[in-house]
Write a structure and sequence with these properties.
single chain; Alpha/beta knot; alpha/beta; seven-stranded parallel beta sheet; globular; 22% helix
């Protein structure tokens, strides 16, 4: 599989969700997890200890850590977003997920090239969203578009 992906978490509220995101990142081959907000404390939800195999980076602003030539992709429930069903993942993607109790807002959306929504009847758990997006990327891997 060509390319890579990284995960950005904008101000996640719950430490166990960060651990579960690390677990998803390890299972689905993400290259890095970066986050803003509170410092991470080891969570039991990182059952595979992914934090020992891939970088977990605490930053002030996710925009400052976008890997070179990597497409920032906001995962957000909003009008005008591309449905994940129809989305072609770029070869190099930096997926940005918002906090559990809010949205990404214009502060982050302004620098994301793509905005993608996961079709559902309600808000999903942060770690569930990461799992769904990474699985979709894996599933569509042979169909990946430019970027």
């Amino acid at each position: 599989m060509r390319g890579y992906c990284a995960i950005g978490l904008d101000n996640p509220q719950y430490n166990p969700n960060i651990g579960a995101v690390l677990r998803a990142a390890g299972c689905f081959g993400a290259s890095m997890v970066a986050f803003t907000g509170s410092k991470y404390k080891k969570a039991r939800t990182d059952v595979h200890r992914a934090h020992k195999r891939l970088p977990l980076i605490h930053v002030e602003d996710l925009k400052d850590i976008i890997p070179y030539a990597c497409v920032p992709v906001a995962i957000e429930i909003m009008d005008g977003a591309t449905s994940l069903i129809d989305y072609q993942h770029p070869h190099r993607a930096f997926y940005i997920f918002g906090p559990e109790n809010s949205t990404l807002g214009s502060r982050v959306l302004s620098w994301c090239r793509d905005v993608v929504s996961i079709p559902s009847d309600g808000a999903l758990n942060l770690a569930a969203c990461v799992n769904i997006v990474l699985y979709d990327r894996l599933l569509k891997g042979s169909e990946r578009g430019p970027g």
